[in-house]
Amino acid sequence: MFKRFLISTLCLLAFWLFFNHSASAEGYLNEPIFSPVAEDQQPYPPSKILYTQYLENGNFYLNQRLYEEAKQLFWKAIHLYPDQPDAYVNLGIVHMQQSELENALRIFKQAEGLSQRDYQQAEILFYNLGLCNFLKQDYPEAIRYLERALDEFFEFSQARYYLGLTHYKLNQYEDAFVNIFIAADQFQREGKERASLEAREFLRELETLHNVDQSALAISLLSEGRRALDNDKLDRAVYCLQESALVDPAKIDANYELALFYLEKESYHNAIIYLNKVIEADPNQIKAYLALSQAYRKIEKYDLAAGILESASRIDKENPSIYYHMALAYIEDQEFNTARRYLNEAQRGALTNKDDALLEDIQRAYLLIDEYKTAQAKPPHYPKKFSQKAALPLYPQPKVSGNAGYLQGGYFKPQELAPREEKRLQTTPYLIDY
User: Three-state DSSP class for 398?
Assistant: First the structure.
């Protein structure tokens, strides 16, 4: 009887232990992966690799236009890292391609709120915000975001193109022309021939159907050229400045900017071409005469430098800078008496104008004359000829055993060599090209 009771008790105990273990296992499986932890413990971080895989696979589905599958993967990425903006940007693109613009804009705004100042994909975020606002026909907001995208990445051709289209929608034809003009060139540089052709076709249509203000267009192109110079995009700068000069030849600013650019790059003949265009358009531009004289001096055309400054002095007789630069031309041509005469004239004008900086330059020019004259006064220096006895041998042969040798087959061959070394030199000589 007791034995039967003991067996029953043990069975009940075993059943109770099994039930409790199953319940605890089921509870463990249903428990969230990132459950709260004690204050002195750190949660295990979510997988960055898995996050990246979700993004890559979601982009694959997005390119295949499988939008629902892409959304699921981007939401999984957001659940892993809800404070990272990348998945939000991609999710917003899905909604935008499905023409769900309100949802797309809301998600892009969330991404903008999460992005930090050093966010590496900021130009992508701003571009999509601009594009979404463009599709919603909120053109001022589209311009704001597209310009921010270009501030982040100056060579963003798609952002540049849509910025032009947005200006076109607002009937701002000059700004539209400039941006699409730049985008067409950028597309071509990137090898996107079809996009470049479409942009150029749009430009032809714009010129044909709409009255583009040539003066305003030249100013916009000049502004973009200067902006490109500030961003060290020299090809873009020349492209815009040349077009500005072509659109409105009467304006000298673009030609003068090009001249200064070529002067800085030491391309003096190009600088001379554009400075002559400036003077032809406006003969009273004294700064162009001074820059042109500098370019002529750099190519050692001192007579032309002095001649152009003579023309400037007839326009502005009281300008001491003209006489100072004329003196420099005569100094470099080693006509020192004429140079001193013009330096005296420049000094009188600088004293009248109280121009301390020019006075310092004039004093340095006086010293330069003295240096030239001192150098001319020194007797010519002839190097002492070496006698045959003092000359060093072409191939020294030290007395140390094993190092002396003779020249054979284009390489220096020692006299005493081990058989193995002799074989190596014979099979792989170092030949000299004569």
Answer: coil
Q: What is the dihedral of CA 30, 33, 36, 41, to 10 degrees?
A: 140
Sequence-separated (6 or more) residues with CB below 8 Å from residue 415:
402, 404, 405, 406
Query: ∠21-26-30 over CA atoms, to 5°?
Result: 150
Query: Is 274 part of any domain?
Result: no
pLDDT confidence of residue 164: 95
pLDDT-derived band at 207 (thresholds 50, 70, 90) equals confident
pLDDT over 50 (residue 39): no
For residue 414, what is the enclosing H or E element? Answer: strand 411-414
b/e burial code for range 237-252 (CB count within 10 A of at least 16 → b): bbbbbbbbbebbeebb
C-beta separation of 242 from 227 below 8 A: no
Counting every residue written for the chain, the total comes to 434
Q: Decide: 178 and 219 in contact? Cβ < 8 Å.
A: no
Q: What is the pLDDT of residue 375?
A: 72
pLDDT for the residue 48 = 85
Judged by DSSP in three states, 34 sits in: coil
Q: How many domains is the chain built from?
A: 1
CB-based contacts of 222: which residues, under 8 Å, 6+ apart? 240, 241, 244, 251, 253, 254, 257
Is 261 part of any domain? Answer: no
Q: Where residue 43 falls among pLDDT bands split at 50, 70, 90?
A: low
Q: Is position 343 within any domain? A: yes
Q: How is residue 44 written in tokens?
A: 């295990």
414 bridge partner residues: 405
- Domain assignment present for residue 158? The answer is no
How many whole angstroms separate alpha carbon 289 and alpha carbon 305? 9
The mean pLDDT of the chain is: 80
Query: Is this structure's pTM higher than 0.85?
Result: no
Rounded Cα gap, residues 342 and 320, in angstroms = 9
Which pair of tokens denotes residue 309? 């400054």
Percent of the chain predicted with pLDDT > 90: 48
**In this predicted model, which residue has the larger pLDDT, 44 or 101?**
101
Residue 76 bridge partners (DSSP): none
Expressed as residue numbers, the domain containing 370 is: 318-375
Orientation of helix 139-152 relative to helix 157-169, angle to 10°: 160
